[in-house]
Write a structure and sequence with these properties.
disordered C terminus; 15 helices; Rossmann fold; two-stranded antiparallel ribbon; alpha/beta
Length: 348
């Protein structure tokens, strides 16, 4: 009887050891495999603004030997740190981050430029035998990388731009809604620069652009952070107040002093638009707060509209769920399909 119990105990110990070894094996494989034999794969962390994407990406990078590539259309700009919620050195916890501070806010940075730099960063991470984690809320940037969107080459039409510049954002949005209803669903309706560019493309090529695609040749796991509407609203408010305490208004003043026009600052949207208007005395401090809260909530809604059309996304609520998804993905049990979804987008 004692011998039987001993055997059962040893068997249980062996099973427990196997489970632990399985988890460590994932990380060990990526650390020890030769560069020629390493299996390439990409993890994407996405979700609405203020949902905790950066924190989750760092946790997963630490757990699974990864490095992070930012997918945020405003964090690429130098000097725009507080207003964009750029991750700090301390928050990175030693995990390398790419595609932050790579462009001057005085110059236009396109999704085509972003895609080239992002693919270069991903390749660099592969060469280090690590796992790239693409993290951000800019659906357009994520799709450009994952699905390999090739945008139509449309040169700026300065005459058309001058003509469109005379119209209000509301008029431009109504026009885009009529000509390209799909793009109108995801674009920021008060961002004149983006509205003008979207209209310029449709008008120049005479139709809604048909985009060429060259998806990544390796598996991609897409993880979306899910938050209830009330909780997200509270997180947005909490983050807004924190940014103001950290010196967001001073940051906008500094950008203005560096040579950025009020018009250019407003083009960056959300925090930069409403703080710029406050500094121009176009609205009070309280009005600025209310506008920022409302507009950020609308922005989060547009982000979710974009992401919900992609059935490849695994929506999670906790770190444990994300961790298990990644573990199973790297073991080949979940996801693993090559990007194939077809989704309409228009140039940014």
């Amino acid at each position: 009887m004692g011998t039987h119990n001993q055997v059962g105990y040893r068997g249980s110990q062996k099973k427990l050891l196997n489970l632990k070894e399985q988890t460590y094996l994932i990380i060990a494989n990526h650390k020890t495999m030769s560069r020629s034999s390493i299996k390439k794969s990409l993890i994407v962390i996405l979700g609405p603004t203020a949902s905790g994407k950066s924190e989750l990406a760092v946790k997963l990078a630490r757990k699974f030997n990864g490095e992070v590539v930012s997918a945020d259309s405003r964090q690429v700009y130098k000097g725009m740190d507080i207003g964009t919620g750029k991750i700090t050195k301390k928050e990175m916890q030693g995990i390398p981050h790419y595609l932050l501070n790579v462009a001057s806010p005085k110059r236009r940075f396109t999704v085509v430029q972003y895609r080239k730099l992002a693919l270069k960063a991903i390749d660099k991470i592969f060469k280090k035998n690590k796992i790239p984690i693409l993290c951000g809320g800019s659906g357009f940037y994520i799709q450009a990388v994952v699905d390999g969107i090739f945008l139509p080459e449309v040169r700026p039409d300065w005459r058309l731009r001058k003509e469109l510049e005379k119209k209000t954002a509301e008029e431009l949005f109504a026009q885009l809604k009529k000509l390209d209803p799909q793009r109108a669903k995801t674009i920021e309706p008060k961002n004149k620069r983006r509205l003008i560019r979207a209209l310029e493309i449709v008008k120049k090529i005479g139709r809604v652009p048909i985009l060429e695609k060259k998806p990544l040749p390796y598996p991609v796991l897409m993880i979306g952070i899910k938050k209830e509407k009330k909780e997200l609203s509270s997180l947005i408010r909490e983050r807004l107040l924190k940014r103001l305490r950290k010196g967001m208004i001073a940051e906008v003043k500094k950008l203005r002093k560096s040579g950025l026009s009020w018009k250019r600052l407003e083009e960056f949207g959300l925090e930069y638009r409403w703080v710029a208007r406050f500094l121009q005395k176009k609205l009070s401090y309280q009005e600025m707060l209310e506008k920022l809260q409302k507009e950020t909530e609308h922005f989060a809604k547009r982000q979710l509209t974009w992401f919900k059309s992609d059935e490849r996304i695994h929506w999670i609520k906790t770190y444990e769920e994300a961790k298990n998804l990644v573990k199973n993905f790297l073991l080949g049990r979940v996801g693993g399909e090559k990007p194939s979804v077809s989704c309409h987008i228009s140039a940014k």
